[in-house]
Amino acid sequence: KQTIKELKEEVAKRKEAEYKILESLRKERELNELKTKFLSLVSHEFKTPLSGILTSATLAGKYTETDQQDKREKHLKTIQSKVKYLNNILNDFLSIERLESGKATYKFDTFPLSKVVNEVIYNANMLLKEGQRINYPQNIDDISVNFDEKILELSLTNLINNAIKYSPAHTLIDVEVIKEKEALTIKISDEGMGIPEKEQKYIFNRYFRAENALLDQGTGIGLNIVKSHLESLGGTIIFESEEGKGSTFTITFPNKNTTE
Ligand code: ADP
Question: Which UniProt keywords apply (predicted)?
Protein backbone atom coordinates (compact mmCIF):
# COMPACT_ATOMS: atom_id res chain seq x y z
CA LYS A 1 0.00 0.00 0.00
CA GLN A 2 1.35 3.40 -0.99
CA THR A 3 1.93 6.02 1.61
CA ILE A 4 0.91 9.63 0.97
CA LYS A 5 4.56 10.51 0.48
CA GLU A 6 5.01 7.81 -2.17
CA LEU A 7 1.85 8.94 -3.91
CA LYS A 8 3.06 12.53 -3.99
CA GLU A 9 6.38 11.39 -5.41
CA GLU A 10 4.64 9.44 -8.13
CA VAL A 11 2.50 12.43 -9.08
CA ALA A 12 5.60 14.60 -9.24
CA LYS A 13 7.37 12.05 -11.43
CA ARG A 14 4.44 11.84 -13.83
CA LYS A 15 4.25 15.62 -13.98
CA GLU A 16 7.91 15.76 -14.89
CA ALA A 17 7.53 13.10 -17.57
CA GLU A 18 4.56 14.98 -18.95
CA TYR A 19 6.54 18.21 -18.98
CA LYS A 20 9.38 16.54 -20.85
CA ILE A 21 7.01 15.22 -23.50
CA LEU A 22 5.41 18.64 -23.93
CA GLU A 23 8.83 20.22 -24.13
CA SER A 24 10.01 17.83 -26.83
CA LEU A 25 6.74 18.33 -28.73
CA ARG A 26 7.29 22.08 -28.55
CA LYS A 27 10.85 21.70 -29.85
CA GLU A 28 9.65 19.44 -32.64
CA ARG A 29 6.98 21.94 -33.61
CA GLU A 30 9.51 24.75 -33.66
CA LEU A 31 11.90 22.74 -35.82
CA ASN A 32 9.04 21.96 -38.18
CA GLU A 33 8.14 25.63 -38.39
CA LEU A 34 11.78 26.37 -39.07
CA LYS A 35 11.80 23.86 -41.93
CA THR A 36 8.68 25.35 -43.47
CA LYS A 37 10.14 28.83 -43.13
CA PHE A 38 13.42 27.58 -44.56
CA LEU A 39 11.72 26.10 -47.61
CA SER A 40 9.82 29.28 -48.38
CA LEU A 41 12.85 31.50 -47.77
CA VAL A 42 15.11 29.26 -49.81
CA SER A 43 12.79 29.16 -52.76
CA HIS A 44 12.35 32.90 -52.58
CA GLU A 45 15.96 33.89 -51.80
CA PHE A 46 17.60 31.44 -54.16
CA LYS A 47 15.53 32.28 -57.22
CA THR A 48 17.14 35.60 -58.19
CA PRO A 49 20.78 34.59 -57.64
CA LEU A 50 20.21 31.25 -59.36
CA SER A 51 18.78 32.87 -62.45
CA GLY A 52 21.71 35.32 -62.38
CA ILE A 53 24.14 32.41 -62.23
CA LEU A 54 22.41 30.73 -65.14
CA THR A 55 22.56 33.91 -67.23
CA SER A 56 26.25 34.49 -66.42
CA ALA A 57 27.14 30.87 -67.09
CA THR A 58 25.37 30.96 -70.45
CA LEU A 59 27.14 34.19 -71.42
CA ALA A 60 30.53 33.01 -70.16
CA GLY A 61 30.09 29.95 -72.36
CA LYS A 62 29.50 32.16 -75.41
CA TYR A 63 32.59 34.30 -74.97
CA THR A 64 35.14 31.78 -76.16
CA GLU A 65 37.43 33.96 -78.30
CA THR A 66 40.74 35.15 -76.81
CA ASP A 67 39.73 38.81 -77.19
CA GLN A 68 36.61 38.10 -75.14
CA GLN A 69 38.53 36.99 -72.08
CA ASP A 70 37.60 40.12 -70.10
CA LYS A 71 33.90 39.55 -70.62
CA ARG A 72 34.24 35.87 -69.78
CA GLU A 73 36.08 36.66 -66.56
CA LYS A 74 33.50 39.22 -65.55
CA HIS A 75 30.74 36.64 -65.80
CA LEU A 76 32.79 34.01 -63.99
CA LYS A 77 33.34 36.48 -61.14
CA THR A 78 29.61 37.15 -60.97
CA ILE A 79 29.00 33.41 -60.72
CA GLN A 80 31.60 33.10 -57.97
CA SER A 81 30.11 35.90 -55.88
CA LYS A 82 26.54 34.67 -56.27
CA VAL A 83 27.52 31.13 -55.29
CA LYS A 84 29.28 32.55 -52.23
CA TYR A 85 26.16 34.50 -51.34
CA LEU A 86 24.00 31.38 -51.54
CA ASN A 87 26.56 29.47 -49.53
CA ASN A 88 26.41 32.13 -46.79
CA ILE A 89 22.62 31.86 -46.60
CA LEU A 90 22.87 28.09 -46.29
CA ASN A 91 25.50 28.37 -43.55
CA ASP A 92 23.29 30.79 -41.64
CA PHE A 93 20.39 28.38 -41.81
CA LEU A 94 22.48 25.42 -40.74
CA SER A 95 23.56 27.53 -37.78
CA ILE A 96 19.95 28.17 -36.75
CA GLU A 97 19.15 24.51 -37.07
CA ARG A 98 22.07 23.60 -34.83
CA LEU A 99 21.27 26.32 -32.31
CA GLU A 100 17.63 25.25 -32.17
CA SER A 101 18.24 21.54 -31.86
CA GLY A 102 20.88 22.15 -29.20
CA LYS A 103 23.51 20.68 -31.49
CA ALA A 104 25.70 23.78 -31.80
CA THR A 105 29.22 22.75 -30.95
CA TYR A 106 32.19 25.03 -30.69
CA LYS A 107 35.83 24.45 -31.32
CA PHE A 108 38.53 26.65 -29.89
CA ASP A 109 41.74 27.16 -31.80
CA THR A 110 44.62 29.56 -31.80
CA PHE A 111 45.06 31.33 -35.12
CA PRO A 112 46.30 34.68 -36.43
CA LEU A 113 43.55 37.32 -36.66
CA SER A 114 44.88 38.31 -40.09
CA LYS A 115 44.03 34.86 -41.47
CA VAL A 116 40.30 35.31 -40.87
CA VAL A 117 40.25 39.04 -41.68
CA ASN A 118 42.05 38.50 -45.01
CA GLU A 119 39.74 35.65 -45.99
CA VAL A 120 36.59 37.63 -45.16
CA ILE A 121 37.86 40.75 -46.97
CA TYR A 122 38.89 38.68 -50.01
CA ASN A 123 35.34 37.31 -50.31
CA ALA A 124 33.73 40.67 -49.51
CA ASN A 125 35.74 42.38 -52.27
CA MET A 126 33.72 40.43 -54.81
CA LEU A 127 30.52 42.01 -53.52
CA LEU A 128 31.67 45.65 -53.52
CA LYS A 129 29.63 48.16 -55.49
CA GLU A 130 31.31 50.68 -57.75
CA GLY A 131 33.65 52.93 -55.80
CA GLN A 132 33.05 51.13 -52.51
CA ARG A 133 36.18 50.52 -50.51
CA ILE A 134 36.99 48.56 -47.37
CA ASN A 135 39.57 50.10 -45.09
CA TYR A 136 41.01 47.49 -42.73
CA PRO A 137 44.05 47.39 -40.46
CA GLN A 138 47.25 46.08 -41.99
CA ASN A 139 49.12 45.85 -38.71
CA ILE A 140 47.32 42.88 -37.18
CA ASP A 141 49.88 40.23 -38.07
CA ASP A 142 50.95 39.80 -34.49
CA ILE A 143 47.45 39.43 -33.07
CA SER A 144 46.76 35.86 -32.23
CA VAL A 145 43.22 34.77 -31.44
CA ASN A 146 41.98 31.97 -29.27
CA PHE A 147 38.38 31.52 -30.30
CA ASP A 148 36.10 29.51 -32.56
CA GLU A 149 37.46 30.37 -36.01
CA LYS A 150 34.27 29.48 -37.91
CA ILE A 151 32.14 31.67 -35.63
CA LEU A 152 34.50 34.62 -35.99
CA GLU A 153 34.46 34.19 -39.77
CA LEU A 154 30.67 33.89 -39.85
CA SER A 155 30.30 37.00 -37.68
CA LEU A 156 32.67 39.17 -39.72
CA THR A 157 31.23 37.91 -43.00
CA ASN A 158 27.70 38.80 -41.96
CA LEU A 159 28.67 42.26 -40.68
CA ILE A 160 30.90 43.23 -43.61
CA ASN A 161 28.47 41.88 -46.19
CA ASN A 162 25.66 43.87 -44.54
CA ALA A 163 27.82 47.01 -44.56
CA ILE A 164 28.31 46.54 -48.32
CA LYS A 165 24.72 45.61 -49.06
CA TYR A 166 23.12 48.44 -47.09
CA SER A 167 25.45 51.18 -48.39
CA PRO A 168 25.40 52.92 -51.76
CA ALA A 169 28.23 53.02 -54.30
CA HIS A 170 31.27 55.22 -53.56
CA THR A 171 31.23 54.78 -49.79
CA LEU A 172 33.81 53.64 -47.31
CA ILE A 173 33.52 50.65 -44.99
CA ASP A 174 35.89 50.83 -42.08
CA VAL A 175 37.10 47.86 -40.05
CA GLU A 176 38.79 48.66 -36.77
CA VAL A 177 40.46 46.20 -34.40
CA ILE A 178 40.95 47.04 -30.74
CA LYS A 179 43.13 44.71 -28.73
CA GLU A 180 42.48 44.64 -25.03
CA LYS A 181 44.15 42.58 -22.37
CA GLU A 182 41.59 39.82 -22.25
CA ALA A 183 39.30 40.64 -25.15
CA LEU A 184 39.27 41.59 -28.77
CA THR A 185 36.90 44.18 -30.22
CA ILE A 186 36.16 44.58 -33.91
CA LYS A 187 34.14 47.53 -35.23
CA ILE A 188 32.62 47.67 -38.68
CA SER A 189 31.34 51.06 -39.78
CA ASP A 190 29.57 52.04 -42.95
CA GLU A 191 28.15 55.18 -44.55
CA GLY A 192 24.94 53.51 -45.62
CA MET A 193 21.20 53.79 -45.17
CA GLY A 194 21.31 53.16 -41.41
CA ILE A 195 18.52 51.63 -39.36
CA PRO A 196 15.38 53.68 -38.58
CA GLU A 197 15.34 54.51 -34.88
CA LYS A 198 11.94 52.99 -34.19
CA GLU A 199 13.04 49.64 -35.66
CA GLN A 200 16.41 49.44 -33.93
CA LYS A 201 15.09 47.40 -31.00
CA TYR A 202 14.02 44.56 -33.31
CA ILE A 203 17.20 44.27 -35.32
CA PHE A 204 18.47 41.09 -33.66
CA ASN A 205 15.09 39.33 -33.88
CA ARG A 206 15.10 36.37 -36.21
CA TYR A 207 13.72 37.15 -39.70
CA PHE A 208 13.37 40.86 -38.86
CA ARG A 209 14.24 43.25 -41.66
CA ALA A 210 13.90 47.03 -41.43
CA GLU A 211 11.51 48.85 -43.73
CA ASN A 212 14.28 50.70 -45.59
CA ALA A 213 16.16 47.45 -46.34
CA LEU A 214 13.36 45.56 -48.03
CA LEU A 215 14.45 46.39 -51.56
CA ASP A 216 17.72 44.52 -50.97
CA GLN A 217 17.91 40.75 -50.80
CA GLY A 218 18.10 39.26 -47.33
CA THR A 219 16.67 36.78 -44.86
CA GLY A 220 16.86 38.60 -41.53
CA ILE A 221 18.76 35.76 -39.88
CA GLY A 222 22.39 36.86 -40.00
CA LEU A 223 22.42 39.23 -37.02
CA ASN A 224 20.28 36.85 -34.98
CA ILE A 225 22.67 33.93 -35.29
CA VAL A 226 25.78 36.09 -34.90
CA LYS A 227 24.36 37.35 -31.58
CA SER A 228 23.35 33.86 -30.40
CA HIS A 229 26.73 32.34 -31.19
CA LEU A 230 28.75 35.22 -29.75
CA GLU A 231 26.73 35.27 -26.55
CA SER A 232 27.11 31.50 -26.17
CA LEU A 233 30.84 32.08 -26.30
CA GLY A 234 30.92 34.97 -23.80
CA GLY A 235 30.98 37.72 -26.44
CA THR A 236 28.69 40.62 -27.29
CA ILE A 237 27.42 42.53 -30.29
CA ILE A 238 26.10 46.09 -30.19
CA PHE A 239 25.46 48.77 -32.79
CA GLU A 240 24.88 52.45 -33.31
CA SER A 241 23.03 53.67 -36.33
CA GLU A 242 21.49 56.77 -37.80
CA GLU A 243 19.09 56.57 -40.69
CA GLY A 244 20.61 58.02 -43.83
CA LYS A 245 24.05 58.38 -42.25
CA GLY A 246 25.39 54.92 -41.47
CA SER A 247 25.90 52.22 -38.89
CA THR A 248 28.63 50.82 -36.70
CA PHE A 249 28.45 47.24 -35.46
CA THR A 250 30.84 46.26 -32.68
CA ILE A 251 31.63 42.73 -31.61
CA THR A 252 33.70 41.87 -28.56
CA PHE A 253 34.80 38.42 -27.52
CA PRO A 254 37.09 37.02 -24.84
CA ASN A 255 40.67 36.55 -25.96
CA LYS A 256 43.32 36.02 -23.33
CA ASN A 257 46.03 35.19 -25.77
CA THR A 258 46.29 38.32 -27.90
CA THR A 259 49.98 38.44 -28.76
CA GLU A 260 52.06 35.70 -30.29
P1 ADP B 1 19.57 40.38 -43.82
O2 ADP B 1 20.68 41.30 -44.14
O3 ADP B 1 19.68 39.07 -44.50
O4 ADP B 1 18.22 41.01 -43.99
P5 ADP B 1 20.50 40.49 -41.06
O6 ADP B 1 20.05 39.70 -39.89
O7 ADP B 1 21.93 40.45 -41.38
O8 ADP B 1 19.61 40.00 -42.26
O9 ADP B 1 20.05 41.99 -40.80
C10 ADP B 1 18.74 42.27 -40.33
C11 ADP B 1 18.32 43.64 -40.75
O12 ADP B 1 19.10 44.62 -40.09
C13 ADP B 1 18.52 43.95 -42.22
O14 ADP B 1 17.46 43.45 -43.01
C15 ADP B 1 18.58 45.48 -42.21
O16 ADP B 1 17.28 46.01 -42.10
C17 ADP B 1 19.31 45.75 -40.91
N18 ADP B 1 20.76 45.94 -41.09
C19 ADP B 1 21.75 45.06 -40.77
N20 ADP B 1 22.97 45.58 -41.03
C21 ADP B 1 22.76 46.83 -41.49
C22 ADP B 1 23.62 47.90 -41.92
N23 ADP B 1 24.95 47.77 -41.92
N24 ADP B 1 23.03 49.05 -42.34
C25 ADP B 1 21.69 49.20 -42.34
N26 ADP B 1 20.83 48.24 -41.96
C27 ADP B 1 21.34 47.07 -41.54
Answer: Coiled coil, Kinase, Phosphoprotein, Transferase, Two-component regulatory system
Q: Tell me the per-residue pLDDT of 131-186, one tens digit each, with 9 for 90 and over.
A: 999 999 998 989 999 999 999 999 999 999 999 999 999 999 999 999 998 999 99
Phi and psi torsions of 16, nearest 5°: -65, -40
Give yes or no for residue 49 CB within 6 A of ligand 1. no
Q: Ligand 1 pocket test: pick from 166, 171, 248, 249 the residue with the most ligand atoms within 8 Å of its Cβ.
A: 166
Q: In 10 A of CB 113, how many CB atoms?
A: 22
Cβ atoms 184, 259 nearer than 8 A: no
* Ligand 1 close to Cβ of residue 213 (< 6 A): yes
Q: Residue 135: in which H helix or E strand, if any?
A: strand 133-135
Segment holding 85, helix H or strand E: helix 69-100
Q: Which DSSP string corresponds to 126-194?
A: TTPPTT-EEE--S--TTBEEEE-HHHHHHHHHHHHHHHHHTS-SS-EEEEEEEE-SSEEEEEEEE-S--
Is the pTM higher than 0.95? The answer reads: no
Query: What residues are paired with 248 via a beta bridge?
Result: 189, 240
Asked whether this complex has an ipTM greater than 0.90, the answer is yes
Residue of 223, 248, 250 to test ligand 1 pocket, by largest number of atoms within 8 Å of CB: 223
With cut-offs at 50, 70 and 90, classify the pLDDT of residue 260.
Answer: very low
CB of 209 within 6 A of ligand 1: the answer is yes
**Per-residue pLDDT reduced to its tens digit, 60-111:** 999 989 888 999 999 999 999 899 889 888 888 888 888 877 888 899 999 9
